[in-house]
């Protein structure tokens, strides 16, 4: 990982995206006539400043993908709002406009590319949908430019996606996400399906593109090592809720929430001093099903610090230090 | 002798950077709708499929056009002329044989069109009966497949799209129909309908088509849609899971765009191919029903009923069984091979 130009984010910059109380419930059929809500995302709030990368981590199934998709209104949120540059996204017209500003890179580089389309047509699809060119020549030029951005050869344009490796396919997906010249990209575990040897390349490319095009990312990963490198701030999710949100560096050095502590202690660190300070906290037990979340704190079934109070009420997501949010009743006691 | 040819050194000129034109040559973008043309190109390279295609074309064209100029009618018994005694010498002619009256006319200098496959036991020209039988068989196969396609498409997409309870109910019905022994059901239905449908349609325009063919279509509509509807449902369910549909939505595409650009191109070939493969199976069903006497109404021939009639004189006239049998085999085989060729050509995952 070469380019270590830290993304200097203006801390006072206007938030580009604000998410307020976002909820995404799916109705799950449990019998012929009964259904219960699956709270895939339950009341999350945060904001992302322009030019910033917010890393979103959590175990598989905790609702990261769903959060990313409902922020983009690919699912209609059950509740809550998404505010883009100070303006809430509400009507169909808002959503249509938002689609040219906010795009997504998908996790699976295989199923996210239509096997019946050539690479050029896949990348050009957003241009076609939004009529963003006047002539075929202009379209062609724009597609070649996008392919150049992501390091694809122009010879690849007429080929089908299935002829490529996972890394190249993901580049096609990234080029498609860049086509409309967006400000904001939700990157949904964009490297988790790739070979380890290629992951670093692709992540570096994300950083270069951010510098070059002034992009803002919501970067989802279940692997802390991946987000650590690219994120300015990191949000940790557990069972559809956000449990901690902090500066990337701080959360690594001093995680406050018991779940963050456990996640971070599981990451191998080269520095022995830090390694000793973060004594390993093993997570015991399985992640509960989001259909039957525990009462009170969702993490209490696996939390080493759990007390009766934790079962009584849901800990609020509160600002414990400046710019640092944690959802835990006992955060002060644990960390004092 | 040019000594440089023997040198192991590389030719530097081969490694010069490409010129702009050369680069331009490499960057050829295909226009947007190339998938279909790519498939056609692959198809035209497949020799077996192309030969099958020409056989089908030849058989179809002759089934359509030959009866127009052939001097004999499929139903006319040549030995029975109004006002004349029955001329039995027209019956059971061998290929290229003439009856005694025709022989007399030839001797008188008239030209008489030959009976290429001879005549049958009622003195009807066998060639035109085979051609006409082919026409009936092809038409039955084609329309039966269309019926199967329409019903299967409708039920399958409702089931796949609605999901939930509707899907469960439809799929249980499909399972029930699937589990019926279809040969037995077809024979039972055909014999019941032969009795009940005949009087019901008497006098209507449908009577001309014949109750048996109509009951054949009803049988197809009742029984054979199930596999098509399962196929369509499976396609829809799997396409709904594909992230490229979501990606198109994320790009701002609306429903009609997604249907046109993603859903149809991704399932059309599977559906067209299995419809094409349905035709030979429908022809086969028609043939065996006709063979059992449950097919087309006399005097209309179909390939199956011709084969069945030929059983009576099998020892003396084996070619009357062999000819329709060969035609059935040719049609079924070439349609199947052509269908396979279509599948290979239009499934890009098999051709990288
Ligand atoms: N379309 C859907 N319908 C029903 N449940 C869903 C749907 N999408 C996701 N879920 C459920 O929501 C939860 C969160 O899923 P997801 O957002 O994919 O998690 P992650 O991306 O963190 O692995 C999971 O329990 C998953 O089963
Ligand atoms: S609220 Fe209680 S159970 Fe939840 S994380 Fe804090 S200490 Fe653990
Ligand atoms: Mg996910």
Find the CATH superfamily of one domain in chain A.
P-loop containing nucleotide triphosphate hydrolases
**Average residue-wise pLDDT of chain B:** 82
Reported by name, the CATH topology of the largest domain in chain B is: MetI-like fold
Number of helices of chain B: 14
Q: Which outline of chain A best applies?
A: globular
The CATH architecture of the largest domain in chain B is Orthogonal Bundle
What average pLDDT do the residues of chain A reach? 88
Strand arrangement, major sheet of chain A: 6-7-8-3-9-10-12-11
Fold topology:
The complex is a heterodimer of chains A (336) and B (352).
Chain A: E1 15-29, E2 35-49, E3 53-57, H1 64-71, E4 79-84, E5 87-88, H2 92-98, E6 102-105, H3 119-129, H4 136-149, H5 166-178, E7 184-188, H6 196-213, E8 216-221, H7 224-230, E9 233-238, E10 241-247, H8 248-253, H9 258-265, H10 272-277, H11 308-312, E11 318-321, E12 324-326, H12 331-335
Parallel strand pairs in A: 3-8, 3-9, 6-7, 7-8
Antiparallel strand pairs in A: 1-2, 1-4, 4-5, 9-10, 10-12, 11-12
Helix pairs in contact in A: 3-4, 3-5, 4-5
Chain B: H1 20-26, H2 35-45, H3 47-69, H4 100-107, H5 126-162, H6 164-179, H7 182-200, H8 206-209, H9 211-223, H10 225-241, H11 243-250, H12 255-291, H13 303-310, H14 319-346
Bound molecules: adenosine-5'-diphosphate (ADP), iron/sulfur cluster and magnesium ion (MG).
